[in-house]
Amino acid sequence: MSDAVTLGFAAFTQAKIDPAGVLLVFCDEALKFGPATAKAIAPAAALVARAAKAERFTGKNGSTLDLIVPEGLRVARLVVVGAGKAATLKGQDFVKLGGIAMGKLPVRVEQAAVFAELPGGALKADGAADLALGMVLRAYAFDRYKTKRKDEETPAKKRSVTVAVGDVAAARRSYAEREAIAGGVVLARDLVNEPANVLYPEEFARRAAALKKAGVAIEVLDLRAMKKLRMNALLGVGQGSAHESRVVVMRWNGGKKNDAPLAFIGKGVCFDTGGISIKPAASMEDMKGDMAGAACVTGLMQALATRKARVNAVGVIGLVENMPDGKAQRPGDIVTSMSGQTIEIINTDAEGRLVLADVMWYAAKRFKPKFMIDLATLTGAIIVALGHEYAGMFANDDRLAERLAKAGEATGEKVWRMPLAPEYDKLIDSKFADVKNTGGRMGGAITAAQFIQRFVAEKTPWAHLDIAGTGFDSRQSDINKSWGSGWGVRLLDRLVADYYERW
């Protein structure tokens, strides 16, 4: 994350503006500024007005006005960011504005000051903290393997941003939680962006084990342990790879001692060739991101632990590599899952649901959670249905689905509920086993969810998030310019914070 910044807070009167730095300020749709901002840019007020007229800048939300070496101000650049109708702005709007502001900060600039203020006055602590969160998320870049760059692409060795606020102590308190969430998103992005020759199942497990430093209890199940548990569905996926499969169990105990945990399950296919049912060569390199569900769960567990969430949570990720080999699973094979249900393998490229089948059954039986949410880059069919804007949500519990939808609206990581029905179950009935692992092309995302539902034990409230369109190579946004998005960390943290930490 070479473009990371050091972020701090200061009072408006104490915010230092480097003569070689950038000053970022906000205005509303009437080109009005807050009192501290107006005072800071007063020497250049006439210049700003002329530039706005020349550029037809009206203060529309998300628009920017960039003035280089503005006369009267001792800064290298003044950036005005439009906030639109300031009175209607909410938390996610401030996150977006922070991302836009950060996007206007050249990578070679070492210092910037941001005035967290609108015409009505200083932003409240939460608004200022959301602004800072957006800046940190936008600053992320994964370029650790680049050895040569153009001078203008080389970031400054030290980059610092001072956020000027009305109440410094309150802003710092509010930002502490958001900083933990940002750290979880960054971890998830890093994991998704890593190449598969670096991040294979054993290495992923080692990185997840680093969460011990944050207070997360870690267990790693190796081949021997998984064979003992009869996780044959998961093991079948990985048996053609030179890299051994792993299951990692991460536990954060921040709630009451005897409270059932919340369970988050992640698909972690570190590389997916499709196996014997091999994928076309074009774009196969993207399949290093087929572990985005497991990355999200890992990032979420770090975020919950770092911010000391008052909840018991468990994250379980199944880590495999799906490769073609003389030992690889074949179409037509039948495996017995941990649940005892037999599965006919129709297509070895429908492997993620096999991983989830065993991991979900294990989590449900061992932890008896309040709910289970699994995340998986599972089907291309969900991208056909929803594009890259929403993740597909399937659920057996209306209340859990409603809460996820509200958390998605609040964070901008949106979900759209898709159907589950017995009619779809018929499509995955097998002639030779209890179930087959594909139901054909029609309704592919739905039949995949129907398959997973068969491994949700004892009527546990459950939701399945198909993040194939959002987990990697998704639509970039004002707060994310990374191939690996870290999608889901903010969504699930918000779900936990809003509905499960109240005691």
Give me the side-by-side strand order of the main sheet: 9-10-12-11-15-19-16-17
Which range best describes the helical content: under 10%, 10-25%, 25-40%, 40-55%, 55-70% or over 70%?
Answer: 25-40%
How does the helix and strand content classify structurally?
Answer: alpha/beta
Structural Rg: 24 Å
Q: What is the number of helices?
A: 15
Q: How would a textbook summarize the main sheet? A: 8 strands, mixed
- Low-confidence parts: none
- Work out the number of β strands: 19
Distance between the termini: 37 Å
Mean pLDDT score: 95
Shape: elongated
Strand content: 15-25%
Quick description:
The protein has 503 residues and is an alpha/beta fold. 34% of the residues lie in helices and 20% in strands.
What does this structure look like?
The chain is built from 15 helices and 19 strands. Strands 9-10-12-11-15-19-16-17 form an eight-stranded mixed beta sheet, sandwiched between helices. A six-stranded mixed beta sheet has the order 1-8-5-2-4-3, with helices on both faces. The chain has a three-stranded mixed beta sheet with strand order 13-14-18, covered by helices on one side. Helix 12 links the parallel strand 16 and strand 17. Helix 12 crosses helix 15. The longest helix has 26 residues. It is elongated and about 80 Å long. The two termini are 37 Å apart.
